[in-house]
Amino acid sequence: VQLQASGGGLVQAGGSLRLSCASSGSIFDFYAMAWYRQTTGKQRELVAVITRGGNTNYADSVKGRFTISRDDAKNSVYLQMNSLKPEDTAVYYCNVGLLSRPPLWGQGTQVTVSS
């Protein structure tokens, strides 16, 4: 199974983007799906997570602006990003946490927010 992330791009501050991450197949043993982001020289940080049961959690820096959602029928997870700020500029990665095996990672999609 592979994850394919898409939806990144260049947007002005205050704008919106919707990231998508599709799995090439069904994943039956996941416990959570998440989005991370990373900028050059910094560690990858957790942006948002949605558990198998549908509970969500967000980094303080994106609360109220980003929304994570999941469509199990489409084997996909999404990140709706509103009111984007230049500091949101990063490569965004989708992640699927699995029981008893290493997590899956997407290839990353670049988000650039201009001021």
What distinguishing features does this structure have?
four-stranded antiparallel sheet; 115 residues; seven-stranded mixed sheet; mainly beta
Walk me through what this model shows.
The chain has about 120 residues and is mainly beta. It is about 0% helix and about 55% strand. It contains no helices and 11 strands. It has strands at about 5, 10, 15-25, 30-40, 45-50, 55-60, 65-70, 75-80, 90-100, 105, 110-115. Strands 2, 4, 5, 6, 9, 10 and 11 form a 7-stranded mixed sheet that branches. A 4-stranded antiparallel sheet has the order 1-3-8-7, with no helix packed on it. Strand 9 (about 90-100) and strand 10 form a beta hairpin. The protein is globular, with a radius of gyration of 13 Å.
Short description:
This protein is mainly beta and 115 residues long. It is built from no helices and eleven strands.
Main sheet overview: 7 strands, mixed
Distance between the first and last residues' Cα: 38 Å
Q: Which regions have little confidence, pLDDT < 50, spanning 5+ residues?
A: none
Number of helices: 0
Write the element-wise H/E pattern from the N-terminal end onward: EEEEEEEEEEE
What is the average per-residue confidence, as pLDDT, rounded to a whole number? 96
What gross morphology would you assign? globular
SS-based structural class? mainly beta
Please give the radius of gyration in angstroms: 13 Å
Report the strand count: 11
| Proportion in β-strands | over 45%
Q: What helical percentage do the residues reach?
A: under 10%
